[in-house]
Model the fold of this input.
Amino acid sequence: MNAKLGTTALLAVILSSAYAQQKGDTIIVELAKTSKVTLTIGDRNDLETLKHYNYQELFQDILTKLEANDTTKLPGTDSTSTPVASNSTPDTEDWNTHARAKNENDSDDDYYDNDHNNWNVHVPHNNWGRTWQSFNFDFGTNNYLSSGKFPNSENALYAVRPWGSWYIGLASIQRTRLAKKFFLEWGIGVNWYNFKFEQDNILIQKTSDGTFFIEDTREVDYVKSKLTASYLTASVIPVVDFSDNSRKPRLWDGYGNSFRVGLGPYVGYRIESHSKLVYKDDDKEKQKEHNSFYLNNIRYGLRLQLGYRSTDLFFNYDLNELFVSGKGPKLNAFSFGVIF
Done:
């Protein structure tokens, strides 16, 4: 066992469990299959003293005596189980075992789980309402449906290509524990729809009658045509996390063994929109127009999140139409991809 981080983690578990209580507690710390340490705290004022104990030296003495089958009083202690205060501070190294603190007066557990040599922290179940903050980066593709069908099935000029129609989202997310395995993920962020049309020569025109999609007939080499809209969006997603983790594993963590599922509403306010037509006529030209194009200022819908181990996926579906009624095609936008 790498003793340095082990003793540091043990101290953290003991103190965090003890701080959560208002009276004397017995705390059991399991170190291996059949090994554990029992600590009884009768006065919470002792916690300040416990912070300065040399747990590394104490554990080294304990292990040495156990190997020698010696159960006499440990040097530098008041008994075989109570260490004397020390001014030294334990260092930190990898600790490849489990430490578990159990409060006999509470049915909930706090424990640290070493999974693939990484710390996976489980917080006390009685910390209902506690919130953890993180940043989400959504990356995927977007499209829309017209009466439940893709527009390209009718050769509509506003049909889009899945590849190149990227959906991007940035959000600050708060994760609040509501029950043992039940969380509320809520936050606010900015996201972008990018609708890249199948035909590269599509122009978007806005008139008093509405928004129209027409073909540009100039004799140039067309590169791409697209419509982009950005929104300030808030979401509230109830999530069931079967691992009971306070923080879900991230894609780059490379660990985790749980399944997560969440479904909830979102609402967004359009903050910018523009069209872009790119073509080559001797030099590369860009024709860009900033306009509302009668896009709805408000979008709202449902978001589904699915996670397993360290991978999370999302699916968004707008319940309201992309364009103002009667001013553009009847389209409901959606997006899906990966959460980083």
Q: What stands out?
A: The chain has two domains: 3-122, 131-339. The CA atoms of residues 125 and 336 lie 32 Å apart. The mean pLDDT is 79.
